[in-house]
From TrEMBL:
Catalytic function, reaction form: (S)-dihydroorotate + H2O = N-carbamoyl-L-aspartate + H(+)
Cofactor mode of binding and number, as noted: Binds 2 Zn(2+) ions per subunit.
Pathway named in the protein's UniProt entry: Pyrimidine metabolism; UMP biosynthesis via de novo pathway; (S)-dihydroorotate from bicarbonate: step 3/3
Organism expressing this protein natively: Paracoccus thiocyanatus
Gene: pyrC
Name of the protein this chain belongs to: Dihydroorotase
Amino acid sequence: MTKSVTLRRPDDWHLHLRDGAMLQAVASFSSHFGRAIIMPNLVPPVVTGAQAAAYRDRIRAALGPKMTLRPLMTLYLTETTDPADVLAAHAAGIIAAVKLYPAGATTNSASGVRDFDKVRGVLEAMAQAGIPLCFHGEVTDPAVDIFDREAAFIDRVLDPIRRATPGLRVVMEHITTSDGVDYVAGNDDIGATITTHHLVINRNHILAGGIRPHYYCLPVAKRETHRLALRRAAVSGDARFFLGTDSAPHPDHAKESACGCAGCFTAPNTMSILAQVFEDEGALDRLEGFTALNGAAFYGMKPNQDRIRLVRRDTPAAYPTHIPAGDETVTVFDPGFPLYWHVEDPA
Ligand code: DOR
Ligand code: ZN
């Protein structure tokens, strides 16, 4: 029997589209999403409203007139960010949120925040204006084990900032631990994105039986108990949890290297993978909430009006294993199981 589910068109609340040849190569793979929060960690980063508007225009040009994905831009918070520029960019409809990278936490985060007191003024202005703050939630203290960096971040940074800045709406991006799930589930004015890959892999996928660089991302996947906690949160129906793929393409040579970059490129097959995960959890009826309703509600936006259909067929859906990007290739995330759910997009 053919199974199918019809959903409001999903949104991706955390996406890396990059720039230049890579942007041209990857943009179309997210085109079945209605909206996407676009990460600002370019080189150099997107720090001003004017830069965000210019980047948005480059994305629109790469998408072309036929693709309907709406890029929702973010600013990269630095210790010298001008609160007035943030407020103006938000009031002009250029940005939907601001992204905080602790300096050194991940790809292109060197211009991020070292001293959180230095951004207090911007955060207070954002709280007043209702502008969400998206956090990369990991401490950078070299004394903290990489697998503990998310939990340490909650205690040392996230909770103190939230207490000091009442009303600040915070998204804990790409949570990877039960600590993250518990913190979000126990608080208000907070949401969390969960990636596709963190619902599928644990740290064994990266390290057991050989090192697999295409599963390396940040925050790094944790042990199985954490993956299971993320799956429970994603299918729970709790509106604080929503999809942010963190699809993060890198050229293969930069991943397959003595010092490989962090990032999984999941845009092409994300919806097929998620349908399988939700089916396995007996929660296909919650897939629409996770991918199309909860995030929009958090950001104060209406759900998309149109719909896509996911159909489970007997033959697997065909996805490329690699895509070309200029002179490079990019490896598509391999979930390790066949994908029988096909995306049928009437658009
Ligand atoms: O795996 C990741 N890749 N995590 C991040 O935080 C950044 C991203 C990227 O930009 O490559
Ligand atoms: Zn990211």
